[in-house]
Design brief:
The chain has 15 helices and seven strands. The chain is mainly alpha-helical. The chain folds into three domains: about 210 residues, no CATH class; about 90 residues, no CATH class; about 35 residues, no CATH class. The strands form three sheets. It has a three-stranded parallel beta sheet, covered by helices on one side. It has a two-stranded parallel sheet with strand order 2-5. β3 and β4 form a beta hairpin. The C terminus is likely disordered.
């Protein structure tokens, strides 16, 4: 059997407080530093318990009507927040409800946002192939670090300075301006920024809607066995604020899947249902593990920084249990190509060699299969020349000129 698996699912699920680590490590450091410092100040305000100051802080972003958790989630949308779904009632017309999750960036080159692209592009959507990815995250950071912002924006940096002994929250104005002037209006047109209609998740009836969808299936699997709830780390710098904890996401699960006659979910995901297959050490002959070292999913995948160091000690081991960590690679970067084998040289060096490695890996598997044939019941669209081509490949002879099933 032939198996290839890039990590979009999880080698080891659980609460994920490392999701933002690749952004912190590889992102533009002036942008990362600005968001980190602002989030640290936001946490100070939440920790103070001062309701008036908390409300004032939310109002800077135009979101004083939101709960603490929804506010923290909404301002994290541009960076990477990807936690199930949000929304309120089914008739609010909010476009956040129609996508898998919750983020966007504004294409702000100078002082104005000249183009709002699809409402779902962050670090995870960066890709070497411009037809498959988006540069929105870089452009979001251009907003946050805009050196030429007018005084009406930069003066906002001082609005909460009483919390920091008179020191400004550098780039707070840029960040808040992007959220309330561009992100929310783009996500939810004709809905007031200071409204629960767009970023509110505190609607139990919404979550309890049993209409079948891919989102609901994903939510059920997440609630019952995957977890991977995004949570703010307990220690160290963070790009997301402290109200984002397990309980914030778990409440969506409780609302969505109330105990019924035939089913009830547990109070937390049963991670053993997935981890029983090996967790970080999941292994099966001819199962290939392919990850990107800058993928935000990395630390719940085979090549996680929390897993043992991966390297192959013999060609037979590599053939039976192939694994590859793509240097500089992001989410699913090996999943698209620039066409046929003859065009592979047009791809970036590391991606080109990932695809060549995948081809070699499958070829070695095929050569181990000395008695394989293509049966029409297995491959109903294979014709005689396809079968001849397969036979030639087993014999290490070329048939690249076929339209090709390889």
């Amino acid at each position: 059997m032939v198996r290839i698996a890039a990590c979009s699912s999880h080698a080891r699920p659980g609460a994920d407080d490392n999701r933002y680590a690749p952004i912190q490590k590889y992102g533009p450091q002036d942008c990362v530093a600005s968001i980190t410092a602002i989030v640290d100040n936001i946490d100070q305000v939440f920790d103070s318990g001062d309701a008036d100051m908390i409300n004032k802080m939310k109002s800077v972003f135009g979101m004083e009507s939101l709960s603490d958790g929804d506010f923290a989630q909404a301002i994290a949308w541009p960076s990477m927040f990807q936690n199930l779904r949000a929304g309120s009632n089914a008739d609010d017309g909010c476009s956040w409800r129609t996508i898998h999750l919750l983020y966007n960036a504004c294409l702000h080159i100078s002082r104005e946002c000249v183009n709002i692209s699809a409402v779902a592009n962050t670090w995870q959507e960066l890709n070497w192939d411009p037809l498959s990815g988006s540069n929105d995250f870089w452009l979001f950071c251009t907003n946050v670090t805009n050196l030429d912002a007018p005084e009406s924006i930069t003066s906002v940096d001082y609005e909460l300075s009483s919390v920091t002994n008179g020191e400004p929250w550098t780039n707070l104005g840029n960040y808040a301006n992007y959220i309330k002037k561009y992100l929310i209006p783009a996500a939810c047109p004709d809905i007031a920024v200071n409204s629960t209609a767009c970023a509110n998740t505190q609607d139990a009836d919404y979550w309890a809607d049993t209409s079948n969808s891919g989102d609901r299936s994903y939510l059920y699997t997440t609630c019952t066995e995957y977890g991977v709830y995004q949570v703010a780390p307990k220690h160290g710098p963070s790009l997301i604020a402290n109200p984002l904890q397990v309980s914030y996401t778990q409440q969506w699960c409780d609302w969505a899947f109330a105990p019924g006659q035939y089913n009830a979910i547990s109070s937390t995901p049963n991670l053993w249902r997935t981890n029983k297959y090996g967790g970080y050490n999941v292994s099966q002959k001819r199962l290939a593990h392919i990850d990107g070292d800058q993928d935000v999913w990395l630390d719940v995948c085979y090549h996680s920084n929390l897993a043992p160091l991966r390297y192959s000690t013999s060609l037979q081991e590599e053939t039976d249990h192939p694994q590859l960590l793509i240097s500089g690679g992001g989410h699913h970067w090996d999943s698209n190509a620039l066409g046929s084998v003859k065009n592979i040289t047009l791809e970036p060096q590391f991606i080109q060699n990932v695809h060549l490695w995948e081809i070699r890996t499958v070829e070695r598997w095929m050569r181990e299969c000395t008695s394989c044939t293509i049966h029409s019941t297995r491959w109903p669209h294979a014709d005689d020349s396809d079968r001849a081509c397969f036979s030639l490949r087993i014999q290490n002879r070329s048939c690249y000129n076929r339209r090709s099933i390889w």
